[in-house]
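FAQ
Q: What does a multi-component entry look like?
A: The components come first, one per line:
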Amino acid sequence: MAVDPPVQHVVIIGAGFGGLAAARDLASAPFRITLVDRRNHHLFQPLLYQVATAALATSEIAWPIRYLLRKHKNVTTLQGSVVGVEVQERKVLLDGEEPIFFDTLVLATGARHAYFGHDEWEPFAPGLKTLEDATKIRRRILAAFEQAEWETDDAERAKFLTFVIIGAGPTGVELAGTIAELAHDTLRNDFRNFDTRSARVVLIEAGPRILSGFSERLSAYARRALTRLGVEIKLGHAVSKCGDAGVELDGVFLAAKTIIWAAGVAASPAADWLNAPADRAGRVLVEADLTVPGHPNIFAIGDTAHVETADGKPVPGVAPAAKQEGRYVAEVIKARPRGKDVPRPFTYKNAGNLATIGKRAAIVDFGWISLKGRMAWWIWGIAHIFFLIGLRNRLAVALNWLWIHTSGERSARLITQGEAKKGGIKL
Amino acid sequence: MAVDPPVQHVVIIGAGFGGLAAARDLASAPFRITLVDRRNHHLFQPLLYQVATAALATSEIAWPIRYLLRKHKNVTTLQGSVVGVEVQERKVLLDGEEPIFFDTLVLATGARHAYFGHDEWEPFAPGLKTLEDATKIRRRILAAFEQAEWETDDAERAKFLTFVIIGAGPTGVELAGTIAELAHDTLRNDFRNFDTRSARVVLIEAGPRILSGFSERLSAYARRALTRLGVEIKLGHAVSKCGDAGVELDGVFLAAKTIIWAAGVAASPAADWLNAPADRAGRVLVEADLTVPGHPNIFAIGDTAHVETADGKPVPGVAPAAKQEGRYVAEVIKARPRGKDVPRPFTYKNAGNLATIGKRAAIVDFGWISLKGRMAWWIWGIAHIFFLIGLRNRLAVALNWLWIHTSGERSARLITQGEAKKGGIKL
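Then the predicted structure of the entire assembly, as tokens:
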């Protein structure tokens, strides 16, 4: 009589786009799957800047991970914080919980912002990766306007009304455009002691142009569109200092009470856990099948992995890439017990590159065609609603956008997790 | 030639139901009005329990105060924390800002939960008054289920799956009913290591019945409806201890990791600021025209004031009462410069008393008629949507409720402002 082989235990760390895609695709096979994440929710990061700028509610772009996997009875979701991996003993070490043993491990632990050796800048210039980051940035932006309303000295008030965004990739551009709209349009009638349109939004980029991932033509269009919204763009300027009073650009000080960091990311410490080779951003240099060198049962995907396309370019750290990698890894893991070799190494299929500039313009690059302006904005909007999970959130986000476009109002202008205190409003 | 009299400056402290109603009604008169609140938002407290139980997003029940008053150019809104009033010099003292001088002052500073001399219980048994309270309680409820999923010992797990609500007024009943639905319905398919239906929801009330503000018949109905939802009701039990492991009831210990306080409120320190006579809960004993005794230019309204109806009963601490008082005070203040006496003392018009038990039952008492069950639930729902401010939030809340009722899903199941850490999930 044949004995059933023991059920293979696949452990996935991280429920971002990559980890979630892997879990869903693996769930159809007879594995035992455990998905561990520090958070209880999967986050739709591409719209996080809209939470930071008071357009969307936190719950409209986040879903409980276990809810998304509720129908897959072979998947257990655990909220916990991974602190290491013991490769030989095949166990994942957790903060405050017993270790979890694995047969196969998928590391999809994502990235955090990187301050290029200036971690001391973080308190003054928060980055945007989590819901807490988003509500913190929202609080700082709105509280700056609140403090400006108290201020009687014009020079002091100007500091509260200067918003600096460092880094002109998609997130920096989206934030700058939306903050400019907030100041020049949404908040226009709400203050008595100053004109919100006097606010300055300054976008700082060390490189020679904004949105350098796009063609020069689209990048130039985006620059014009941002300028039309009132954003000041400073190209070729590196920030040399960052503090509670402002930033220093090539020796020149710019006074600003609100600074946002959108300049760089670093991978999570997964490479350190494995003692694996990594690129400068800390991403594991994986094999062609996305396994960690020397560890055929450990995979790294998404922002945790450095993957190259056929022409030697790195696969970008975007949601579609992470999803494709998650699905690919699931395919590899499912093929193995059947004795099949995986037919081909991972290949990245570029689904297109999108960025939006305020609520009326966007740029879209599909490779075979590129678009800008209103039409691109519609493609951007429809694509983002399509990729949201679940009908309810699609309806809610569509309703919110419709509302913002017709009324100019933003519904989530809340200062929370901080209130008025000695010396002003708590940041 | 006649000289215009100087414009009277009315300062309102607090933008709850009372303060906001006063500001809106006063804005039509030629006053200069300043509205100060510690928060930047007005909160629809009657639905706060739905944020705490993951049904609604924070932004669906809160609006920026200055946005609500944007069309009244004679109203200035300031976010700041009042620390005292100098009655003789007619100035309001603020934390970290210059004082504000007033001709007329309206104190609408609301209430906080009261622990009847046991303030040390607060960390273990948070109350529900602010958006932060609501997201904290939501985090604790959801994190308790997350921790139960890790737990291997049944007795330990039971502690995480026991939810104690202290106080069976409307808030306690609404929380207990909704947490029971969450455990027995919403979360049913989402966990692998235990059955969420094994969760216990215990509602503790020191008095002889729940919802004592209603008739015995409606109260008995509510009790049956709650019991049907699986809530254990303990009447005539006073909590004698409260800690991180549970509560003690008349000497008997009940192990529970999640405790919520819904037992009592105390007024803000406004009476202390004025050195004015107050009742036991700290509410100012105001005159028939809602002025503070001896200070005809200072009013107290809402939860800050102890007001009695014609038959000597205290006016309840509910939104309609605060609104009526705010409007009345505006009428008094507007009548004075015209040399008119206010025709009559304040009278409270009872608009009806409503409470809901889960998502299918409610009780409604209009005085001339009382209702229970489905029909009452519809009245409750329609009334609450009607009293929300703005079409957008009405649509958003209605959409959410429709979704919850048809799918059983709750959209705001987010654990935020706290993540997994040493020894479990941060609370």
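Q: Is there any commentary attached?
A: Sometimes. For this entry: Chain B touches chain A through 61 residues (CB under 8 Å).
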